[in-house]
Amino acid sequence: MKKGFTPFRNIQTIMAKFFKVGRVDSRLNLSQKSNKFLTGFTLLEILLVVAIISILSVVIVVSVNPARQFKNSRNSQRKADVHKILNGVYNYYVDNNAFPSTITTTSTEICKTGSSVCAGLVVLDDLTATQTYLIEIPIDPLGGINENGVGYKIYKNANNRIFISATRAEDETIEISI
């Protein structure tokens, strides 16, 4: 072996170069040196982790887009409600060979089931009175246009064809007919 060469001193030199610190005091044992220089995360590591998490959360929020999901959900409910009302009107027609007499040729909002004040609204109590055709008239997810309205309009054209529409539909037109 070379004179003055000790393996322990080489380890100290390597450690000092690796951690970019001055010469390590030989009186400290190796575990004290590593604890002294290896505790916690650096600021750069923390900032990188925060940046990565932020980027991932933005990507997830943009891809999910909760506002669009809620809007699509409400529109799906409106389509189901319009079909439900139309099926009730059609079944009434099949049983009675006529549409309810309150349906006019002007597109008018439908009144809520059991409401006592329905001025200017179409009353479809014939459909809900015996609960044969509908238990109650469905209400738009955002509520009616009028206080006692359900948010859906109904009318019949000159050819006696029934049209039902969701007036509060978002970004699309929801109207069906029989």
Automatic annotation (TrEMBL):
Record keyword DNA-binding present: no
Transmembrane segments: 37-64
Keyword hit for Membrane: yes
Gene3D superfamilies cross-referenced by the UniProt entry: Glycoprotein, Type 4 Pilin
InterPro entries for this protein: N_methyl_site (IPR012902), Pilin-like (IPR045584)
Keywords assigned: Membrane, Transmembrane, Transmembrane helix
Signal peptide range in chain numbering: none
Protein known as: General secretion pathway protein GspG
